[in-house]
Amino acid sequence: MSRGFPSMTALLGLLALAGYQNRDKLAELLKGAGNTQPGASNEKGPLDGVLGNLSGGLAGTGIGGLLGGGLQELRERFKQNGQGDAAESWINKGPNKELPAPQLKQAIGPDVLAALEQQTGLSQEELLARLSRELPTAVDQYTPDGRLPH
Fold first, then answer.
1. Is residue 26 part of a domain?
2. Interval 63-89: pLDDT, tens
3. pTM listed for this prediction
4. What was the pLDDT predicted at 120?
5. DSSP readout, the chain?
6. How many domains is the chain partitioned into structurally?
């Protein structure tokens, strides 16, 4: 996981792996990440490896902390890498700016992209394709009032 942007990496990884359309299930999974009950099944789902890694790096952080922290980190990272206007368009009210895969790759940065590739098992191309499709809508929906959650 990226040391400098753990919440953003977690948020992007979950969006890439499960997609925005499964956001309610993601919230449930995040709440239960790392919690094992006696006698619980040992079956592993496709998110278990990612969630296990996330629960260690984000111990004590609920879905609100993940979203708020991840979105703030995303906005800062995108600004630093020349794509702040796209991230701001997703947060603010109004139309969302599309961000093609090459610009998204620049905005995310090679360290976060490498961490996502390792954590999800998806290729960089697949990650970028999924995120360029899911990320604008997800950020827009998570910021309905045009501001980041607290």
1. yes
2. 555 566 788 889 999 999 999 999 999
3. 0.67
4. 84
5. --SS-HHHHHHHHHHHHH-GGGHHHHHHHHHHTT---TT------TTHHHHHHHHHHTTT--HHHHHHHHHHHHHHHHHHTT-HHHHHHHHSSSPPPP--HHHHHHHH-HHHHHHHHHHH---HHHHHHHHHHHHHHHHHHH-TTSS---
6. 1
